[in-house]
């Protein structure tokens, strides 16, 4: 275990059956973590757990609605008890919510504007509060969050999405101050992920309107040379493997001096 980034650590991944959550879970397990994947679709969770088991890793699944605070707290308590240490070392909220892409203020309803703001921030609050109670205790814990370039991009048609992304980054910064030094909190800001549709994410539905306007399929839009790659310095979008490997590093002791930061994986769509 000594040569592994996360050897002996216990990690909870909410949205662990999704494209990003599943990719992170697999890398965490490869790096020695005992992984607890939670989500709303058992079949997707089971697929991730089978992949992890097939490579000699350890994973447990649970059906959890991240908007149900009592259920999330009960699950976190159960995970802490299962570890034998009473401690959760790492948590990632990779849950996503449907949100509008392409509708500007004149045609955007209040409900559609608030959908991502309420969903993303409520879920982040609920999961962070549940796991933070089980972190620290002689070994710093790590909470990882996910946002998007919309937090800083000034483009039309992503109002609710942008506000929710900015809110997630603000949440991570302030939470890092509140929980220091017992817990490190780090945000990860990937762009749209090039291979997410192939991994079963809802990206195809999310970007359908934008792709149609560009005269491309969603997959064409995301791959090299596609419409969404035009504004990136690297001429491409990040891959799931890059997001997952970055998450593993940030969760490890090698990133022990990092907290209150947002790691930019936008392939140069944003330059901090």
From TrEMBL:
Name of this protein: NADP-dependent 3-hydroxy acid dehydrogenase YdfG
UniProt cross-references to Gene3D superfamilies, sorted A to Z: NAD(P)-binding Rossmann-like Domain
Lineage per the UniProt record: Bacteria, Bacillati, Actinomycetota, Actinomycetes, Kitasatosporales
Pfam families reported for this sequence: adh_short_C2
Keyword terms of this UniProt record: Oxidoreductase
InterPro entries in UniProt: NAD(P)-bd_dom_sf, SDR_fam
Annotated PANTHER family: 5-KETO-D-GLUCONATE 5-REDUCTASE, ALCOHOL DEHYDROGENASE, PUTATIVE (AFU_ORTHOLOGUE AFUA_3G03445)-RELATED
Top-level taxon: Bacteria
Assigned protein family: Belongs to the short-chain dehydrogenases/reductases (SDR) family.
Any one GO molecular-function label of the UniProt entry: oxidoreductase activity
């Amino acid at each position: 275990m000594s040569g592994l980034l996360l050897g002996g650590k216990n990690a909870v991944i909410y949205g662990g059956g999704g494209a990003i959550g599943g990719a992170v879970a697999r890398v965490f397990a490869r790096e020695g973590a005992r992984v607890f994947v939670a989500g709303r679709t058992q079949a997707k969770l089971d697929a991730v757990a089978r992949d992890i088991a097939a490579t000699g890793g350890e994973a447990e699944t649970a059906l959890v609605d991240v908007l149900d605070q009592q259920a999330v707290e009960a699950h976190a308590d159960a995970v802490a008890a299962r570890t034998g240490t009473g401690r959760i070392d790492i948590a990632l909220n990779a849950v996503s919510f449907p949100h509008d892409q392409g509708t500007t203020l004149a045609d955007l309803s209040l409900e559609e504007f608030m959908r991502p703001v309420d969903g993303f921030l409520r879920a982040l609050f609920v999961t962070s509060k549940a796991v933070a109670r089980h972190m620290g205790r002689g070994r710093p814990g790590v909470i990882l969050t996910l946002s998007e370039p919309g937090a800083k991009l000034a483009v039309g048609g992503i109002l609710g999405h942008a506000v929710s992304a900015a809110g997630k980054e603000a949440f991570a910064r302030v939470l890092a101050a509140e929980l220091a030094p017992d817990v490190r909190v780090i945000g990860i800001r990937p762009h749209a992920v090039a291979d997410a549709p192939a991994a079963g994410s809802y990206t195809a539905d999310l970007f359908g309107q934008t792709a149609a306007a560009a005269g491309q399929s969603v997959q064409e839009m995301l791959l090299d040379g596609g419409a969404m790659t035009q504004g990136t310095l690297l001429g491409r979008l990040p891959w799931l493997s890059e997001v997952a490997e970055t998450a593993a590093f940030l969760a490890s002791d090698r990133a022990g001096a990092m907290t209150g930061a947002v790691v930019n994986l936008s392939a140069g769509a944003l330059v901090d």
